[in-house]
Amino acid sequence: MIGALVVVVHVALAALAVYGVLLTVLNRPPDAWTKRAVGVAVALLVVQAAIAAVQVFGGVTLPETSTFLIYLVVSVCVLPIATQFATAEPSRWGGAVVAVGAIATAVAVWRLQGLWVPGG
Amino acid sequence: MAEAARATASGPGRVLIAVYGVFALSATARAGVQIATRFSEAPVPYLLSALAGVVYILATIGLAGHGPGARRLAWCAVVFELVGVLAVGTLTVFDTGDFPSDTVWSVYGRGYGFVPLVLPLIGLWWLRHTRPR
Fold first, then answer.
1. What are the TM regions of this chain, as residue ranges (chain A) (predicted)?
2. Taking CB atoms and an 8 Å limit, are B15 and A91 in contact across chains?
3. Positive or negative CA dihedral for A43, A100, B81, B93?
4. Is residue A120 in a domain?
5. DSSP letter at A92?
6. Partner of B77 at 20 to 30 A CA spacing, among B84, B99, B109, B131?
7. What is the distance of C-alpha A43 from the center of its chain?
8. How far apart are CA B76 and CA B81, in angstroms?
9. CB-based contact (8 Å) between B96 and chain A?
10. What ipTM was estimated for this complex?
11. Rounded to 5 degrees, what angle do the CA atoms A74, A75, A81 make?
């Protein structure tokens, strides 16, 4: 885990959540830009997960390794699934579904941060 | 002529299903880890935690499905969920002695921003709102 990247990820997820809620408020279905924004967020999450996985399997010891790895997988998988579900029925509510996915992912990243206690 | 039931999986219902899906995932995964790593510390609460996860899964399936069967499943799961969060919440508020604070329904779901308490109420409202009449 890299502190600066965690901050960037949190900002990206917060922006995505706000964007999603905004779509719902403005009565607009998710568009191509929504998918691009989700793509950027997921790319950041994949990079973060890859770095963390390399660190864990490279010898960094954590107090709760299995829980950490589960959250790592969850942090990457939730947004693509939520976005698929959000765009399956094009309506104003798709944006809110993306926002729920972004918030859930942010919580997972927050938990990851708490579980990242190298050498603990 | 009776108006047909509106699909629970349409419109704002999709947001509700998304939240239920998140809780199904997090409650089940959390209970799984608890049972796998420290089951002997508090077997009953952790089993209850797993049950909560299953109830969220059933509620998600019920709400996302179509037809009277899915609707009945959703009703049962959401009612069970409301009873569960109220019972476990009350139990943990008045007797914190031997009940761990880290299950999804502990202290009315405080560890999850009280969403577990609000979610079944919204679920019941949504099922009522979309019912056949």
1. 6-26, 38-62, 68-86, 93-112
2. no
3. positive
4. no
5. T
6. B99
7. 9
8. 8
9. no
10. 0.92
11. 70
Q: What is the pLDDT of residues A36-65, one digit of tens each?
A: 999 999 999 999 999 999 999 999 999 989
Q: Give how many domains chain A has, as a whole number.
A: 1
- C-alpha to C-alpha distance for A74 and A79, rounded to whole angstroms: 9
Q: Is residue A20 part of a domain?
A: yes
Rounded Cα distance, B96 and B57, in Å: 28
pLDDT digits (tens, 9 = 90+) for B36-95: 888 888 888 888 889 999 999 999 999 999 999 999 999 999 999 999 999 989 988 887
Phi and psi at B81, nearest 5°, equal -65, -45
Give the integer Cα–Cα distance in Å for B93 and B51.
Answer: 20
Q: Which domain holds residue A63?
A: 3-115
In a domain, A65, yes or no: yes
Question: How many residues are present in chain B?
Answer: 133
A73 within domain boundaries: yes
Residue A104, C-beta contacts closer than 8 angstroms, at least 6 positions apart: A78, A82, B22, B26
